[in-house]
Amino acid sequence: xxxxxxxxxxxxxxxxxxxxxxxxxxxxxxxxxxxxxxxxxxxxxxxxxxxxxxxxxxxxxxxxxxxxxxxxxxxxxxxxxxxxxxxxxxxxxxxxxxxxxxxxxxxxxxxxxxxxxxxxxxxxxxxxxxxxxxxxxxxxxxxxxxxxxxxxxxxxxxxxxxxxxxxxxxxxxxxxxxxxxxxxxxxxxxx
Length: 191
Known about the structure:
The protein is mostly beta strands and 191 residues long.
C-alpha cells in the first residue's frame, strides 16, 4: 500500500495525472499510510497558496502522524512537517479565524482536540484551541456568513456532532449546530 500526494494538472477539458506511470509523488520524504484530509490556503499569510494535508500511520510506528505543508517552487514541491501529534489528524483547514489578517492551520485530532498552527516567520507554533470534544474530529471547514465579518470554524465528529467555533476577541465560543446518528465525514462552507 502506497500513500502520497500526487500532482494533478488540468489540460482542459480533462485532468491529467503526471509523473512516472500515472502518478508523481510531490514529496520524497516519509509519507504517512493514509492522507486523511487536504486543504489549500495561505497558511503563512504571505500571499502564497500552499497545500496542507493531515495524515496518520500505523499505530505502532508513530511516524507520519500530523499536518504537512507543501509549497510549489516553480519546478518542484517543497514539503515540511507543520506538526506531529501522538494521535492521527483526521481533518485540516486553513484561514483567518481571529480576524487579525493572519491565517492559521487547524487540524482535528482523533482524540477530540482541535490543534492550531501559527507561522511565526521562522517556525510553526502549535497549540490546542479547544477542550476535548469527546470524539474524533473527522471534518473541518471555515467560512463567514454574508452579513458578517466573523469567520467561523465548523467541526464534524465521529459521534455525529456538528459544532461551530467562533473567536470572540478573547475566547472561543462553541455552539452545537446538529447532532446526527452517524459520523460526519465531510463539511463544506460556501455560497
